[in-house]
């Protein structure tokens, strides 16, 4: 069994309030969940208007599949116009 965790730091340039940030974060979290069937949570930067850290977890018995899924999620986030990906890290357990 493989557990893969993706942690992404993102920047939301258009967010001028926590409410605006939450709207963008909710949208991207919903897209990721719907398309990839993974767990997504905002884990840091909760009180900052333009920054957030998302953690995404994926479990599978094949070691290659979770890594592939998380790489596709990184590509999806990079293609989003409302946010900028600052940094990310993928860990396999």
What distance separates the N and C termini? 9 Å
- Give the low-confidence spans: none
Structural class: alpha+beta
Secondary-structure element sequence?
EHEEHE
Radius of gyration: 13 Å
Backbone shape: elongated
Helix content: 25-40%
**CATH class descriptor:** Alpha Beta
Number of domains: 1
The tally of helices reads 2
Do you know the CATH architecture? 2-Layer Sandwich
Mind sketching the topology for me?
Elements: E1 2-11, H1 18-36, E2 39-44, E3 51-60, H2 64-79, E4 84-92
Antiparallel strand pairs: 1-3, 1-4, 2-3
Structure explained in plain terms:
The chain is 38% helix and 38% strand. With 93 residues, it is of the alpha+beta class. It has a single domain, classed as 2-Layer Sandwich (Alpha-Beta Plaits), CATH 3.30.70. The chain has a 4-stranded antiparallel beta sheet with strand order 2-3-1-4, with helices on one face. A hairpin with a 6-residue loop joins strand 2 (39-44) and strand 3 (51-60). The protein starts with a strand and ends with a strand. The mean pLDDT is 95.
Keywords:
single chain; 93 residues; alpha+beta; Alpha-Beta Plaits; four-stranded antiparallel beta sheet; 2 helices; 38% strand
